[in-house]
Amino acid sequence: MSQDEIEVQLKREPGTEDLPLPRYMSPGAAGMDLLAAVTEPFVLGPGQRAMVPSGISIALPKGYEAQVRPRSGLAVRHGLGILNAPGTVDSDYRGQVQVILVNLGDTPYTINRGDRIAQMIIAPVVQARWHETSDLPETRRNSGGFGHTGR
């Protein structure tokens, strides 16, 4: 295992042994594809959303999260997205990873077993400890936001 890798325990859900495990599709890929672990094809109509199982549960080390993000090809070609993107899988969650897909396109989309439906990125996280104060340090930007810096 190299310096830029961590070991993550993974458990397959029963009946998903036929599906490949998430993997990086290129040496420089940041995300691994999550597959649809549906038992039969289903149609996601325009404007509809569905919770799609991935067939895996994971045990992340403390200090890490898994981010579930849309796949760009599905978004641009079919209008498929993820409602809570990026979704977060916390290090203490042990349930099945699921993806909340939404069809923002104008035609129905069929989801089949084994379809690549999302990507998952493992990332380090830190937890904040609040320090309440009456004043914040000044910056050049200060409270400017929401388009403050122009186009």
How many domains is the backbone divided into? 1
Percent helix: under 10%
Shape: globular
Return the CATH architecture: Distorted Sandwich
- Strand arrangement, major sheet: 1-4-8-6
- Uncertain parts: none
| The CATH C-level class name | Mainly Beta
Q: Give me the strand/helix succession.
A: EEEEEHEEEEE
Radius of gyration: 19 Å
- Strand element count: 10
How would you describe the overall organization of this protein?
With 151 residues, the chain is mainly beta. The protein has one domain: Distorted Sandwich (Deoxyuridine 5'-Triphosphate Nucleotidohydrolase, Chain A). It is 5% helix and 36% strand. It contains one helix and ten strands; from the N terminus they run βββββαβββββ. It has one helix spanning 72-78; strands at residues 9-12, 32-35, 42-44, 49-59, 64-69, 80-82, 87-89, 96-103, 109-111, 116-124. The strands form three sheets. Strands 1-4-8-6 form a four-stranded antiparallel β-sheet. Strands 2-10-5-7 form a four-stranded antiparallel β-sheet, with no helix packed on it.
Overview in brief:
The protein has 151 residues and is mainly beta.
Q: Top keywords for this entry?
A:
single chain, 151 residues, mainly beta, Deoxyuridine 5'-Triphosphate Nucleotidohydrolase, Chain A, 10 strands, globular
List the helices and strands and how they pair.
Layout: E1 9-12, E2 32-35, E3 42-44, E4 49-59, E5 64-69, H1 72-78, E6 80-82, E7 87-89, E8 96-103, E9 109-111, E10 116-124
Antiparallel strand pairs: 1-4, 2-10, 3-9, 4-8, 5-7, 5-10, 6-8
